[in-house]
Amino acid sequence: MDLTSKITRILRSLYKAYGRVPALKRSDPVDEIIRTVLSQNTSDKNSVPAFYALKRSFRSWERVLKADTGKIASVIKHAGLANIKAQRIKEVLAEIKRREGMISLARLEGMGLEESEGYLRSIKGIGPKTAACVLLFSFAKPVMPVDTHIFRVSKRLGLIDNDLTIEDAHKALTAMVPKGLIYRFHLGIIEHGRRTCKAARPSCEACVLYEMCGFKLKSFYRKNRRQ
Asked: For residue 208, what are the domain limits?
């Protein structure tokens, strides 16, 4: 089975298991950066409330930029590493304003994929995942953001090599997954990673991708979870 056929089959199975992926609703790119910074080293359960608390408390990114780092940290404390993230947020906002004259990334809409990705990656504090999230969710550009779920599940499915770094996985999966399927693949694999293909004690007995999976311990988990 070629890779495109395998990916199509994976998505078809995920659709049957978890339902249709919601349509893409473009987010503001600055919002997407801040949301992704807050999500680092924590779960959505912690980062999402912190993001909305930040928006509620300051009402604009200009006000966040002018605010004391300690005050920002107190608002986002539930996201963890609050002092580090508060400083990073201020630095990113300051750099965007320095480059653009305002806190806006609307100009990226007219850039090509390589140029816009390079622009984002050149901002200190923006790594491959954050850049990919902005390009995919804010501009609908065909770039694959790779989080821990996608990294783990893609390796178990044999889509990427086990010795591949997470940064290289962004490039490999972006090139591998058909452009029109990147958004569906991203959300579908994350859902599968959260609900079934967990890092510890995966639910192999309920996995709709079991036959396509190369995870060495899948038989062990399937057998033991059924007992």
From this structure: 3-22+145-226
pTM to 2 decimal places: 0.90
d(CA 161, CA 94): 38
Name the domain boundary from 86, 117, 139. 139
Q: Quick one: 135 and 38 in the same domain?
A: yes
Q: Tell me which of 139, 173, 194 is where a domain ends.
A: 139
- Give tens-digit pLDDT for 162-174: 999 999 999 999 9
Both 11 and 49 in one domain: the answer is no
